[in-house]
Write a structure and sequence with these properties.
Elements (H helix, E strand, L loop, with lengths): L2 E5 L5 H10 L11 H7 L4 H7 E6 L2 E9 L4 E6 L7 H12 L12 E3 L4 H9 L3 E11 L11 E5 L6 H14 L7 H8 L7 E7 L5 E8 L6 E9 L8 H15 L4 E7 L3 H9 L3 E2 L3 E5 L2
Parallel strand pairs: 4-5, 10-11
Antiparallel strand pairs: 1-2, 2-3, 3-4, 5-13, 6-11, 6-12, 6-13, 7-8, 8-9, 9-10
Helix pairs in contact: 4-5
Length: about 290
């Protein structure tokens, strides 16, 4: 059957989220997660839809990608049933190589394809070169959870305290220098379907200051969960709050029925990798993006 490339309408977002959720498996490389879609939904459903591309065969989605036009990067997810499908690999390569297909613009182009044996093997054979290296990590939610002295407040669809929500936004903006996160963006994200299986956690120190935050995303029971994003307020670093909020995130995913907690961070972020390892995450072999020649 023919494989078709399609743009995405806002009305199809829930279908895509559920499809990608069903592709999440333990023991395979970390790929695009419904939590990634949920976080980007904070920009609005129209903007998210405009960034997505789907490949269908016989009406079924077999691959999808989220394009970041600012960086020239597409992040891919591939159905487990077609990881060795040469025809799909060839179609993906053709569409990503030709700017006229409307996936990657002319000039620099990069693909994050951590899953899909046939496609990953085809890329270097076709002249694509290894780009940034990433370190995947995972944690068994059943592993012991050590109390690290951080008081944690939870925000989910049933519990939204205005003070905690304001702290969530403030910590997010203090975590990353160029953050544009706002209360309105959180509300947009929380109203979307992926957040029905998500929670925001805010960590407080002994003085009651909000010092760390994370959003955790479930893909459904017995599937890997994602923490994205996670960080510590810039004024409170160096006190062990990173590992503490990381452990809290893993514990929250266990409560939500996730089979594991996953994360992928740049391999160059040595401190970040060490933080996850100290929080009980297992470091897996590095994977690379691929850059178009």
């Amino acid at each position: 059957m023919t494989i078709t490339l399609e743009l995405v309408a806002s009305a199809s977002l829930n279908e895509i989220v559920e499809t990608v959720a069903g592709w999440q498996q333990d023991g395979v490389p970390v790929q695009l997660h419904p939590g990634d879609l949920g976080w980007n939904w904070s920009l609005g459903e129209d903007e998210l839809a405009a960034a997505l591309r789907v490949w269908r065969r016989g009406g079924q989605i077999v691959a999808m990608g989220m394009v970041d036009d600012d960086t020239g990067l597409i992040r891919l997810a591939i159905a487990p049933s077609v990881v060795d499908d040469d025809a799909l690999a060839a179609r993906l390569l053709a569409d990503l190589s030709d700017p006229g297909q409307g996936v990657l613009s002319a000039g620099a182009g990069t693909v994050e394809a951590r899953f899909g044996t046939a496609f990953r093997e085809l890329l270097p054979r076709s002249g694509w070169v290894a780009d940034e290296a990433w370190t995947p990590l995972c944690r068994d939610p059943a592993a012991p959870v050590q109390d690290r002295g951080l008081r944690v407040e939870v925000i989910d669809t049933h519990n939204v305290q205005e003070r905690v929500l304001q702290d969530r936004v403030a910590v997010q903006r203090a975590m990353f220098p160029n953050s544009t996160f706002t209360l309105e963006r959180w509300q947009t994200m929380a109203a979307a379907s992926p957040y029905r299986r998500a929670r925001c956690l805010v960590g407080y120190d002994h003085d009651g200051a909000a010092v760390a935050a994370v959003t955790v995303w479930s893909a459904g029971p017995a599937r890997p969960g994602l923490r994205e994003p996670l960080g510590v307020h810039r004024d409170h670093r160096g006190h062990g709050y990173g590992p503490a909020i990381t452990v809290a995130a893993a514990h929250a995913l266990r409560e939500m029925g996730s089979s594991s907690a996953t994360v992928c961070t740049p391999s160059s972020n040595v401190g970040g990798v060490a933080t996850y390892v100290s929080a009980g995450f297992q470091q897996l072999p590095d994977v690379t993006d691929f850059r178009r020649p």
